[in-house]
Design a protein that fits this description.
This protein is an alpha/beta fold and 256 residues long. The chain is built from seven helices and twelve strands. The strands form three sheets. Strands 6-9-10-3-11-12 form a six-stranded mixed beta sheet, with helices on both faces.
């Protein structure tokens, strides 16, 4: 589904990703972990097409198409979704109008109000969201957990085939984390070919969303790849002993 080849990325004239390579197959779940400042969130922004990040070399291929120079809205319509670490607040734009406009843009046709309300209310109930949030300005006055649930609400309505979760677990209490994770897992069950890239500092969310691959990033590239057990070991011993190791390839079960 997604192939990143020899990607070099800089922000504010500082190179953050260096000859970065990653391949994600249909239906697989990958995790990116690493210390602060090594480029984890940069990777998510670059895949989504944030113009603040300059790609000086390499390619991003999505379902066989080179999307390196495509705009964010085009990438979104192709099926890429980013649940942001710090969702933006937009005063004066209702959450309902935002969501309905996004759905209409994806479908390239106006979504009927009744159909939208019905689907939106069902998704909100599954996320145990206060329905009043749908009619408020986008993310304005939302708690951290409400913002993250609202990101997953967007996901459920837009139905992407490739999902990036950038620290979706931050700002969530234990109960909210379980609800968010369950909704993502249920979505994956409904659309099994969906691929997921999780970017996180913590391993708790991985107790609910089990990955096929765990990648440790350092010095702007992946330095080690393993399975779920690698994440648990990181939780016990930290990153330090891995930072100088070479990349280890683990076969993706979805290749078989």
């Amino acid at each position: 589904m997604l192939t990143i080849k020899n990607l070099n990325v800089s922000v504010s004239d500082k190179e953050v990703l260096k000859d970065f390579n990653l391949e994600i197959n249909d239906g697989s779940i990958h995790v990116i972990m690493g210390p602060n400042g090594v480029g984890k969130s940069t990777l998510s922004r670059v895949i989504m097409g944030d113009n603040n990040y300059k790609v000086s070399n390499g390619k991003i291929i999505f379902n066989g198409e080179d999307i390196t120079k495509l705009s964010t809205d085009v990438r979104s319509r192709l099926g890429i979704f980013l649940a942001m670490q710090n969702p933006l607040e937009i005063d004066g734009v209702s959450n309902q109008d935002f969501l309905r406009t996004a759905m209409s843009s994806h479908l390239d046709k106006q979504v009927g109000l009744y159909a939208f309300i019905k689907e939106c209310e069902l998704a909100s109930e599954e996320l145990k969201m206060d329905k009043k949030l749908i009619h408020r300005s986008l993310n304005v006055g939302f708690s951290g957990g409400e913002k993250k649930k609202n990101e997953v609400l967007q996901l459920k309505l837009l139905k992407p085939s490739f999902i990036i979760l950038d620290e979706i677990d931050s700002g969530l209490d234990v109960d909210s984390l379980k609800i968010v994770a369950k909704n993502i897992v249920d979505y994956k069950k409904e659309y099994p070919d969906t691929s997921i890239l999780i970017i996180t500092h913590l391993t708790k969310i991985l107790d609910y969303i089990k990955p096929n691959y765990v990648h440790i990033i350092g010095n702007g590239r992946i330095i080690l790849t393993g399975d779920y057990s690698l994440a648990k070991k990181i939780e016990d011993v930290g990153y330090k002993e891995y930072l100088d190791k070479s990349n280890v390839i683990v076969k993706d079960s979805h290749d078989e």
